[in-house]
Design brief:
heterodimer; A: about 220 residues; mainly alpha; B: about 475 residues; about 0% strand
């Protein structure tokens, strides 16, 4: 039962990761990230219910506050400052993007990554799926021209790694989780401040507009 | 105790800089803190040389290689902070920056030093990752310090490329923890735990994990093809920061890769990591050679030279044996000479207001002391005898001749091309006719003393290595 609900939750995670490639609105992307993070919260909370470990509950609350609530607020605030509603274009059009995502998912399920997805044999499917979200998030950063998309891509990559770590049973101690979370919060603040500064300097959040270093 | 004093003094300096309303106070506390860090780092190195691993608290552990890098952070850090005092005063006089920017600069500079020290001294791989990520965050605003579009672009590239790289490194790091699954070990995992558990690590997972670590942390080291952020960031940052980025930060990330190499070697044998090191090292040399000839900015030229030297070190560690000893020694020389070069580049920029090779001529006439230091450091970094880098390159190549002769020959060829390219550009700006509007004489002695002191130290180390340092290098090359 727990395995089925973990699969269902992670299917939502996977869909939100794919939706980050297709969505056009910044607000939608921020919400998709929020949903993605909420899945992580539910997974950790589920683990708390199973084990009764108080540190896990604390980590779940920490993720809830930082990633589900704070990060989308900071991203949408950056969006309002730059008066932009829509994400920038991608290098590759949507149909080909979807084909690449399908190929990435197939590769993550292939024998190439067999040692990684067999860390916990019972979670093989979930590990393959989380590995594919790592690769899809990486593709998101590479394929998008907008600074906000790149920020969300980095955050989605981090979420995917957290999911993989969760299914592989490699969670770290509470003190380290706090350290990692602190780093991520600072990263989000700095990245969104930079996005605002980029808009002020270049009048756009399109990173391809930045051509001052070409010499 | 030493480590605690270092961290407390640097963090106290950062806090004071944040609250201080006087420029003198900011400069004074920063220089004092970096001096305490220098003294503390030497004391730590002496202890490690005498007693082995220095681990005063559960969260910290400094081995031989770590103590060498701690010393580099202490020495170059002190030189950079002292140089920054003179450099920022000149920039304030030119009305490029105001008091608030000076304040921001020293707060971030102190945090940068603290995070680098934490990365090298942390006993836990995840803490190391957190600290290295923190170096990215503390330096992003230093790279965009001048608030110009080009600096902003460089900082954004730095932030995104390094963050993605470090996340991949994070993923690789966590994969190493699979060795501890089922061993009953729980709680705070140290580097030593990972090393002792390496025999339980699935060889295939070890290989995949090391590839992620090498690509991830290798991005921070500046290895090709992940180097794209480096020339932009190093050329757009203020000179003291460029010196720290090139001379120190790259080594901090490199030490982390080497620690993972040690764990991987236990699991799959040394050949796997060695071959990867040789491939990435040679590729870095090749990329630097390809681009160095067409460079238009002398600061970018120095940045590409860093990619070259990181490549040489990587090849040295890949060759093994004597190559490892030489690579560690190369790391020390490169840190010192590259910092000197960036300080000299900073003095040149203050006088000529340009980083373009085409517009700068006759540094030796305009800035006689800086010109001589610039030339000497150029000769040293390109591997001209009698400077230490000549010897380390020779040792690395001779180690390679025995095991990988084709790679060694290719490296000699690329190094020769790099020597010609680098030397051609630098001699063009050092000699030649000085433009009439450029005044003669050094601007400020505080801009000359740090590079002068460093070049004296580097020269002494080229001929004499103190016993404690020699001991540390031997210990590090055998670990």
């Amino acid at each position: 039962m727990i395995m089925i609900s973990a699969q269902f939750l992670f299917a939502i995670f996977f869909i939100t990761t794919v939706s980050l490639h297709i969505g056009k609105k910044i607000f939608g992307a921020a919400m998709a990230y929020s949903v993605q993070s909420f899945v992580i919260v539910l997974l950790i909370a589920g683990s708390f219910v199973q084990t009764g470990s108080i540190p896990l509950l604390f980590v779940a609350l920490l993720v809830l506050v930082t990633k589900v609530i704070l990060a989308p607020i900071l991203i949408t605030r950056a969006m309002k400052k730059s008066r932009l509603k829509f994400l920038m274009n991608t290098y590759i059009n949507i149909p080909i993007t979807l084909v690449i995502i399908a190929v990435i998912t197939a590769v993550a399920h292939s024998s190439l990554f067999a040692p990684l997805v067999s860390i916990i044999p019972a979670n093989k499917e979930l590990l393959s799926l989380s590995l594919s979200t790592i690769l899809i998030s990486f593709f998101l950063i590479v394929n998008h021209k907008g600074a906000i998309s790149q920020i969300i891509g980095v955050l989605s990559l981090e979420n995917s790694i957290v999911a993989f770590v969760f299914f592989a049973g490699l969670e770290q101690s509470l003190s380290l989780q706090i350290g990692i979370m602190f780093d991520i919060v600072i990263w989000i603040i700095i990245a969104t401040v930079f996005a605002s500064m980029i808009y002020r300097h270049f009048g756009s959040l399109d990173v391809t507009e930045m051509e001052h270093l070409k010499d | 105790m030493e480590l605690l004093i270092i961290f407390l003094s640097i963090l106290a300096a950062a806090t004071t800089c944040l609250l201080a309303k006087s420029r003198g106070v900011i400069e004074c506390v920063s220089v004092t803190a970096s001096f305490i860090a220098l003294v503390g780092s030497v004391l730590i190195a002496l202890k490690v040389s005498k007693f082995g691993v220095y681990a005063p608290y559960e969260f910290f552990s400094v081995n031989a290689l770590g103590s060498i890098v701690v010393c580099i952070i202490g020495l170059v850090g002190f030189a950079a902070v002292t140089y920054a005092v003179g450099y920022l005063r000149e920039e304030t006089a030119k009305e490029i920056i105001g008091f608030t920017r000076v304040k921001q600069f020293f707060v971030l500079l102190n945090l940068f030093l603290a995070t680098m020290l934490l990365a090298v001294t942390a006993s836990n791989p995840i803490f190391t990752w957190i600290a290295i990520e923190a170096t990215t965050l503390s330096t992003a605003f230093l790279i965009s310090f001048y608030n110009k579009p080009s600096a902003m672009e460089a900082a954004w590239k730095y932030l995104i490329v390094n963050s993605v790289g470090l996340l991949l490194g994070f993923f690789g790091t966590l994969l190493y923890f699979t060795s501890l699954q089922g061993t009953g070990e729980v709680g705070f995992m140290t580097w030593d735990n990972l090393l002792s558990g390496a025999t339980h690590l699935d060889p295939m997972i070890a290989k995949i994990a090391f590839v992620f670590v090498l690509i991830g942390y290798g991005t921070k080291v500046g290895l090709a093809p992940m180097h794209t952020w480096l020339p932009d960031a190093h050329s757009k940052a203020p000179a003291p920061i460029s010196a720290l980025l090139s001379g120190v930060l790259l080594n901090v990330a490199f030490v982390t890769v080497l620690r993972f190499k040690g764990i991987t070697d236990v699991s799959v044998g040394p050949e796997f990591a060695q071959k990867l090191f040789i491939v990435f090292g040679l590729l870095s040399l090749f990329v630097a050679t390809l681009i160095i000839f067409t460079q238009k900015s002398y600061k970018r030229l120095l940045a590409y030279s860093s990619i070259e030297n990181m490549g040489i070190m990587t090849i040295g560690f890949g060759f093994g044996g004597l190559g490892v000893f030489a690579a560690i020694l190369h790391m020390i020389y490169h840190s010192l000479f590259k910092s000197i070069l960036f300080f000299s580049a900073g003095n040149t920029f203050l006088r000529y207001s340009s980083t373009k090779i085409a517009t700068v001529r006759g540094i030796i006439s305009a800035l006689p002391v800086t010109g001589v230091i610039f030339l000497a450091a150029t000769l040293a970094i390109t591997g001209t005898p009698p400077f230490g880098i000549f010897l380390t390159k020779m040792f690395i190549l001779s180690a390679g001749m025995k095991t990988y002769p084709i790679v060694a020959i290719a490296a000699i060829f690329l190094m020769a091309l790099l020597f010609v390219g680098f030397f051609k550009h630098i001699t063009t700006i050092i000699f030649g006719e000085k433009p009439d509007e450029i005044a003669i004489g050094e601007k400020n002695m505080w801009l000359v003393i740090p590079p002068l002191a460093l070049i004296i130290i580097a020269l002494c180390l080229s001929f004499y290595i103190p016993p404690f340092l020699n001991n540390l290098i031997v210990m590090a090359s055998h670990s």
